[in-house]
Write a structure and sequence with these properties.
By secondary structure, this protein is mainly alpha-helical. Helices cover about 70% and strands about 5% of the residues. The chain is built from 16 helices and 3 strands. Helix 14 packs antiparallel against helix 15 (about 315-335). The longest helix is centred in the C-terminal third of the chain and has 34 residues, at about 275-310. The two termini are about 35 Å apart.
C-alpha cells in the first residue's frame, strides 16, 4: 500500500491543494455576512477532506476493474439519470437533483465520469484500427446522445454539453478517420452557425414557443450572448455586472473582500457559478492568471501521466477527464467575458458544490490509479472463470488462447 502511495503524482496533489486554498478563501469572501450562506467555506473544506479521502482510496483501487464492468456502470448511471428526471428536485431551474436527507446530489455530474470510463472501454476494443463510421462512430454517438437527452430534459445545458465535448475528445484520440473528423467539424459548424442565424431571425417565435414550454430562462441565457439588443434588463443583469466587475479589477485587483460589485450583491452566485468574477475583481489580472496557470499545469501533468501509461485504457480515460475539465473552465470563464452563453457550469475545484467537487476529486483519484497501476501490464486481471496457464488476459496486450 505504501509503495502505491509513493507512486502518486505529487505535483498534481499540490495543485489541488492550492486550488483548495483559493476556493476556501474566495468562498469566505463571497459568503461572509450572509446568514443564508455563511459557513459555506467550512462546508467546502469538509468536502475537500472527503475528496482527498476519495483520491487516496481510488488510487489503491485498480481502475481496470471499472473498465471491465463499464457497460454495467453505464446502465446504472442511466437509471440514476432517469430517476432524477422523474423524482428530482429543482435547484436554479435545473430539475435533476436527488435529495438524500439533508444533502442533494446531481446525477448529471456523476455521469460525466461514468461516460468517460464507458467510452474508454468501448474504444480500447478497437485497438489501433481506424474507427469505422457506421460500426463505431454512430453507435458511440447514440450511446452519448441518450444521457445527453435525459440531462437536457432536466434543463441542464451545461452538463449536457460536457457529454458532447467528452465524446469529441475520445473520438479524436480513438483514431477517428481524418475525413470523418472533417465532416463532423463541418456539420457542427453548419449546425451552430445555422442555429445562431435561425435564433436571431426567428427570435420572437422561438421565445413564444419556449414560453409555452415554460423554459424562457433558456432565452434569458442566450439573448445577452447572441442578441444583446433584445435581451431584457433581467437577462443581461448577471453578465453585464460580471463584465464590469472583471474590468474593474485591473491588474492587481481591489483586494481580498474589497470587490465592490461582488460584495454588494450586484453579481449573483459569486460562491458558485460566478466565483471567477470574484477572483478577477478582488485579485485582478494577476490572480486570474494564477488560477489559469494552475489549471494549465494540472492538465499538463495529466497528459504526462497518459504518455507514461503502458496500459491502453488509461490514456483514453485521462483524455476524457482533460476534455471535461477544459470544457468546464472555458465555458465558466467564457460566459462572464462574453464569448460563451451562460449555462450555470461550475469552475472546477473552486466553485461551491459538493457533488461537483467530489466527482472532480474522484477523477483525480482515477488518474492517480492510472499512474500507479498503468505500468502493470503483466499483472493482468483475469476474466471470470479463467485461471491457470491458459488464462485469458483482459487488460494485457496479448491474449492466450483458451
Amino acid at each position: 500500500m505504501l509503495q502505491k502511495f509513493k507512486k502518486m503524482d505529487v505535483p498534481t496533489l499540490m495543485i489541488i491543494f492550492m486550488l483548495m486554498i483559493i476556493s476556501v478563501m474566495c468562498l469566505y469572501s463571497a459568503t461572509h455576512g450572509d446568514p443564508k450562506l455563511e459557513g459555506h467555506h467550512i462546508k467546502m473544506l469538509a468536502f475537500y477532506v472527503l475528496g482527498f479521502g476519495a483520491v487516496f482510496a481510488i488510487t489503491l483501487f485498480d481502475y481496470r476493474l471499472l473498465v471491465k464492468y463499464a457497460l454495467y456502470i453505464y446502465f446504472f448511471g442511466l437509471l440514476i439519470l432517469l430517476a432524477a428526471n422523474f423524482f428530482g428536485g429543482n435547484i436554479n431551474n435545473a430539475s435533476g437533483w436527488i435529495k438524500l436527507g439533508p444533502i442533494s446530489i446531481q446525477p448529471a455530474e456523476l455521469f460525466k465520469l461514468i461516460l468517460v470510463i464507458f467510452l474508454a472501454s468501448v474504444l480500447i476494443k478497437r485497438g489501433k484500427a481506424k474507427l469505422e463510421f457506421w460500426r463505431d462512430v454512430v453507435p458511440i454517438g447514440l450511446m452519448t446522445f441518450v444521457p445527453f437527452a435525459f440531462v437536457m430534459l432536466q434543463n441542464d445545458l451545461g452538463n449536457a454539453m460536457a457529454y458532447v465535448v467528452i465524446l469529441i475528445g475520445l473520438l479524436w484520440i480513438g483514431n477517428i478517420k481524418a475525413s470523418h473528423a472533417l465532416i463532423g467539424f463541418v456539420v457542427i459548424a453548419v449546425l451552430v452557425g445555422g442555429g445562431i442565424k435561425l435564433y436571431t431571425v426567428y427570435h420572437d417565435n422561438i421565445y413564444d414557443y419556449l414560453d409555452k414550454l415554460g423554459r424562457t430562462h433558456w432565452v434569458e441565457r442566450l439573448d445577452p450572448w447572441l442578441v444583446p439588443e433584445k435581451a431584457t434588463a433581467k437577462a443581461s443583469w448577471h453578465t453585464d455586472n460580471a463584465k464590469l466587475a472583471i474590468g474593474s479589477g485591473g491588474i492587481t485587483g481591489k483586494g481580498f473582500m474589497q470587490g465592490t460589485s461582488v460584495q454588494s450583491g450586484r453579481v449573483p452566485y459569486t460562491y458558485s457559478d460566478s466565483i471567477f468574477v470574484l477572483i478577477a475583481e478582488e485579485f485582478g489580472f494577476v490572480g486570474s492568471s494564477v488560477v489559469l496557470l494552475l489549471y494549465f499545469i494540472l492538465i499538463h501533468r495529466m497528459i504526462l501521466i497518459a504518455l507514461e501509461s503502458k496500459e491502453r485504457s488509461g490514456p483514453y480515460i485521462i483524455v476524457g477527464v482533460v476534455a471535461m475539465y477544459l470544457y468546464q473552465v472555458f465555458e465558466n470563464i467564457g460566459a462572464f467575458i462574453g464569448i460563451m452563453p451562460l449555462t450555470g457550469i461550475t469552475l472546477p475545484f473552486i466553485s461551491y458544490g459538493g457533488t461537483s467537487l467530489l466527482i472532480n476529486m474522484a477523477s483525480i483519484g482515477l488518474i492517480m490509479s492510472i499512474k500507479v497501476h498503468g505500468q502493470e501490464v503483466d499483472d493482468d486481471i483475469l476474466a471470470p472463470g479463467t485461471n491457470g496457464p491458459n488464462k485469458k488476459r483482459i487488460f494485457g496486450r496479448k491474449q492466450a488462447k483458451a
